[in-house]
Amino acid sequence: MSLSTKTSPQPSRVLLVAVASAFLVGLDSMITVPLVPAIAEDTGTEARLGGLFVSAYALLFALAAPLCGAMSDRLGRRTILTGGLIAFTLGNALTGITSEFSLLLACRALAGLGAAMIMPSVYAMIADTFPFERRGKVMGIVVAGLLSSTVIGVPLGSYLAHLLGWRVAFFAVGGVAVLVCALVLALIPPVQPPAAQQQSTKSPVAVYLGMVGRAVTTPAVLCVLGCTLLWSFALYGMFSNIGIFYAERFGFNEAQTGLAIMGSGAGSMAGALLGGRIADKLGKRTVIVVAALVAAAGVTSVALIGDHIVPVLIVFIVWGTAVGVGQPSLSALVSELRPETRGTALALNGSAQYGGMMLATSIAALLLDNGVSFAVIGAICGACALAVLPLLVGVRVAGRADAAAVAGAAPAPEAGAKA
Q: What is this structure's pTM?
């Protein structure tokens, strides 16, 4: 397919589109959390199975992201990003008009497919535009945009849902998606990626299968993907059910839970901005180690503190901050493992992230439905955060490019090509 090769977009425009797109996906991922009790009641579903709404979204993301990333390397970031925003809009609009539980899961899956097209394209555009030595800072800004939805969008959506019903929140997300799509079309020109010429004889499916094949035979890639999957599990196993936790323990409604999430989201935003800057100076690995230790302590403690709301909220915010600190380093690291096809590499990393989300939410829903306490869920999540640490050793020794990436330095060009 022949694509226009206009001048590359300005970095400031790429960053604006990336932050707006990340905010949108973060908003859709998180807005379900405080609404789960209301959705479950309206659809006649057991509240502790509400995490499956997140599972359906995450499952489609995990399955589709690698193919979407390969397509973005072939067809261009703008094309796949725009298509993803259209699917995303439809998924949220249909969620708002559906009442049957299984159909709701299908609608959330469609929204997950749209997100699978959006985020790999966004991260690849950032990696295409900014050099590795600055990428931690820029990734931190994008991750902050992703997490800012918990400060602005989720509390607002929760309040609207409290006043007007949970369906209004999904209609609002669909409306924001339309605005972001218009922004993409206005600011990002169609640019033919280098991989379109290098892989012109291969189908996206062939690229996808080739990428998976390289991943399972490259220790550094496997270790980074393992880190991302565990990091995601550590977050979402507890966080996807935090609305139920606050409702059961403290009697919170949607609006009150939204405010609690806002505090955690503010910490995550600040952590992402600070963590990205520190990672460029001190190294990605160092930042991830510290963040994993704090996150493990935080997620384990939330359910153990008891009925004292102020300490619970403080620990919740600290936990969210630690997650924000570590996320940019993971994204920046994986963006340099295979620079020649970073769209596919970042997409596979996205699959690991949402695969962890899907596993965490499904397992947590099953355990909670069978009477397992939130303390056990928190302990499992804490163990997953700590399990990230030994995998970082594999990234460090896997090769010159990976070692440089972990240390926070820019790798030599030939090393990056061999990663």
A: 0.69
